[in-house]
């Protein structure tokens, strides 16, 4: 072992046999052209020519991107811009022994001869008709055949390269248009005489010149498609090969019926898998829900999940399509009805009708507005908003009773069935209200206008009072039971009267009522007289608190609509869409569909 002057040791056993190349300090910039280059001269012309390339690739630190024209002879063609990348490459010159094209049989000493139409490629010919460059596997084969008769030189290091990875924009071929030819001939000619001779064309033409840019972006598109991992290929019983998606969710065949559907389903869809083939948890859910439907043929999603706590929420729609069908509109909106049962056939099903309200307190509205203004999530459930604003807030009622309304607590649902209304006054209306002779499939079901009107008006007002108390509104801590009872008594006595007779028939005894109670009674009666179309809980609270006189006109409103300040009208409309469902997604299927 020997040491050199610098102290490094040289071990012959460890010396590499690889060839050492000296790399000159020349500056080379490479261009990865997006096209296959058959003619170098034409390839250079697509980049603007040698002079343009020299200016672009100047060594002053301000190199501009190259522009490649897919149609170099068209000055109106959109160009593809390059991106500059820093690399660490070396440009090599590999020289292989020149092949004569003659062959002889391996292992013999016969003379070399030409066979067939073999030709010798003249790599030194400067003609434009050149063959394509050899591929990588061909080059490796030539290197293997050449053995040590290969001359390799390092030309220069490559520090910069230009790659074309952006969108070339959409191309418009308009060379044949007369106006384009006129502009090209006169304005794009480098001579001054040609430019001076340009005059606008006097002939009319229907040709529309394309815009300077069609695409509003330059980011390249991702065309490297791959197979969906959830898709697999199977062979069915008939021998046909098909593709299936193993990750696709199970399709549900049960769709919501309109209120005026002529027929109802009496059995599950025959395309559903047999129940014995279903997973065990789903079979158990079907059994529990079937037992519940045998005692209560019509129910909401919330009521079903509360009464069957062992049924997981995600399995509910899959199980119900074997047992029931939903109504998406009408008096039984958002309910699931046992297969074969038509609630429109008999008044005995009127306790299962639903009342739907939009619940959104003022504090939740303000919280939603702040969340939107700060760029937060657009979608939020109203009980989540209330929780975020008041972390110490406690849920009212127990989770298993959220489908029940007793007039004292308010859960996070928006839909109640009349059989689940335990408020004594409202339950009395459900029992004593007159029954229609024919069902109203659009709105009131088996209730008259006055009966459904008093139910909606009183329940809406009670909900408004509960919401106000949750928001800490001390002005709403008032008991209206005396007013409710008198209005209910009057309406139930009057029954179904013509509208013009209500003024004389429906009069409340106000002798011992305060002014505020009189205004409340007048408001409730006008709401009922308006055929129960008022849907403005919070609007009603604002009007009663502002001292509305009995002879003032009350506009019909909807709960959650424009009942805030005037400048919040647009926000109220947005909130009605975003926060109308207290349960969000949960209630949108609740209750039925």
The rough form would be described as elongated
N→C terminal distance: 88 Å
Tell me the fraction of residues in β-strands, as a range.
5-15%
Strand order of the largest sheet: 3-7-6
Strands, count: 16
> How many helices does DSSP assign?
18
State mean pLDDT (0 to 100 scale).
73
Name the helicity range: 25-40%
Biased composition (Acidic residues): 548-570, 583-593
GO molecular function, one term: RNA polymerase III type 1 promoter sequence-specific DNA binding
Domain Transcription factor IIIC subunit Tfc1/Sfc1 triple barrel: 29-172
Region (Disordered): 101-129, 250-274, 539-593
Structure description:
The chain is of the alpha+beta class and 593 residues long. Among the domains are: 22-102 and 132-201 and 215-225, TFIIIC, subcomplex tauA, subunit Sfc1, barrel domain (Phosphorylase Kinase, domain 1), CATH 3.30.200; 355-590, no CATH class. The chain has helices at residues 40-46, 49-56, 136-146, 178-186, 192-196, 280-295, 301-307, 316-320, 362-373, 382-389, 424-432, 449-470, 481-494, 502-505, 515-529, 537-545, 569-578, 585-590; strands at residues 2-3, 9-10, 28-32, 67-69, 79-81, 83-95, 151-163, 231-235, 241-245, 298-299, 324-327, 335-338, 354-356, 415-417, 435-440, 445-447. The longest helix is centred in the C-terminal third of the chain and has 22 residues, at 449-470. The radius of gyration is 42 Å and the shape is elongated. This is Transcription factor IIIC subunit 5 HTH domain-containing protein. Residues 548-570, 583-593 have a biased composition (Acidic residues). Keywords: DNA-binding, Nucleus, Transcription. Residues 265-274 have a biased composition (Pro residues).
